[in-house]
Amino acid sequence: MSDAAIFAISLGVTLLGLVISWGAFRRRGAGVGLRGAALSLVPLAAAMTGVTEFFVDLAFSPVKWAGVAVAGLAVLLYMTSGAMMSRAAGSGGGKKAAEGKDARPKSAGRSGKAKGAVEGPAQGGGDPELAEIERILRDRGIS
Asked: What sign for the dihedral angle of Cα 67, 68, 71, 76?
């Protein structure tokens, strides 16, 4: 497609967008109108900088589509490898944390609790202030 045709189409789209933006400005306010005007100028700017030619060539060139497909494949492989690496790193840390919980001795007072009983947050190294509040409540017979 020739430069003159690309420029004429872009100019027409820009002018149409500006007319619609002017109507939006009148009906809905300055913010909406200015946003519409900004978006309306994009096709003209793309034509003047040569970006439009790239996209026109891209749309009609099988070689460029193959390049886009290869780039997409590269991104997909990169993201998949990142997910695999984060799972591998996360699984090793999870095993160590589970072993640490099993290795901790159970307190004698808690062993006789019924199944499904809830332990207080002070057991797992929670908030020390909360542990103190729980201790005070237990001392006063409030549980």
From this structure: negative
